[in-house]
Amino acid sequence: MKNCICLFLSLFVLTTVLPAQNLFPQAMVPVMPETLEFAGEEVPLGNYDTRESLRRELSVTMYMHSRTLYALLQTTRYFPVIEPILKKNGIPDDFKYLCMAESGLNPEVRSPAGAAGLWQIMPAVGRSYGMEVGRGVDERYHVEMATEAACRHLKESYDRLGSWTLAAAAYNLGLTGVVTRLEKQGVNDYYDAFFPDETLRYVFRILSLKLVTEHPLRYGFLIGEEDYCEPLDEYREVTVGDHKIDWAAFAREQGTNYKMLRAYNPWIRNYDSQNPAGRRYTVRIPLEGHRNGKK
Questions:
Q1: Residue 136 · residue 272 · CB < 8 Å
Q2: Closest CA to 69 of 231, 215, 222, 211
Q3: How far apart are the first and last CA of the chain?
Q4: Is the whole model's pTM more than 0.85, yes or no?
Q5: Quick check: 194 and 187 in contact, CB under 8 A?
Q6: Alpha-carbon gap, residue 145 to 147, rounded angstroms
Q7: Helix, strand, or coil here: 234?
């Protein structure tokens, strides 16, 4: 009884002292675009299910504040690296938002299933594209190499499916998973197909990130130009090929520290690397004064 009285008094104070509109956090339904494309392919916003799916993912992207804000601020660091590689490989520019959906543009992300890096590449897939995947060196975390591998993977899916939207779905579900479902259902369009829930939401998550990145203020993110992260482009390159590499000692020899070495070379995954084959690695050494920034 005492607890009930206290609850009643608390509610009475809230409703009499505070304006009603301040009782709960304000939220808004996302602004929906009149038209939208992904990789040059029209999104059928005339379909009620398409609109509802996009609205759902826009809501998640808008109100997952810290994760979305972090990803938005990282776009100026990683998009300038990713965009020319996509272009060189004939992959539409919109696929940078797929990368954003996969990792939140955090190069250190590793999933419970073992996918790693900006493009969340699985170990077997990485090795199939010639990437070293080990305890000391893992090239799935190498931004340029991982982007090249992702481009090959996406191009293979596009050549088989004939649609960039379906190629994006295949990045999530796997090419065989997409082909099998399309054949079983007798459809050839992502927006007409039934997939597992994760894949049903996947392309819409990518689209939501595209919209929020292009129009941050429209979707509730107030970001100044000075807030975006600076690119890590002030470095010199050094080649190392010792049979055993002590990365911390190497960093000191090069006039930097292990922390900064890892920031510029996230593919270095441990203090030491066993390199019996004597493979030669190109390592980026940050220039003096790089931490002072350009702003």
A1: yes
A2: 222
A3: 60
A4: yes
A5: no
A6: 5
A7: coil
pLDDT at 22: 53
Euclidean distance between CA atoms 181 and 240, whole angstroms: 47
Written as six digits, the tokens of 105 are: 């543009």
CA separation for the pair 253, 126 (Å, rounded): 31
pLDDT at 172 over 80: yes
In the numeric block, the tokens 């608390």 are attached to: 10
pLDDT per residue as tens digits for the range 236-277? 999 999 999 999 999 999 999 999 999 999 999 999 999 988
**Mean pLDDT, the chain, whole residue set:** 92
Q: Which DSSP string corresponds to 166-228?
A: HHHHHHHH-HHHHHHHHHHHT---GGG----HHHHHHHHHHHHHHHHHH-TGGGT----GGGS
Q: How far apart are CA 273 and CA 195, in angstroms?
A: 42
Secondary structure letter of residue 77 according to DSSP: H
Distance (Å, whole) CA 100 – CA 118: 8
**Mean pLDDT of the region 190-219:** 97
* Helix or strand run (H / E) with residue 238: strand 235-240
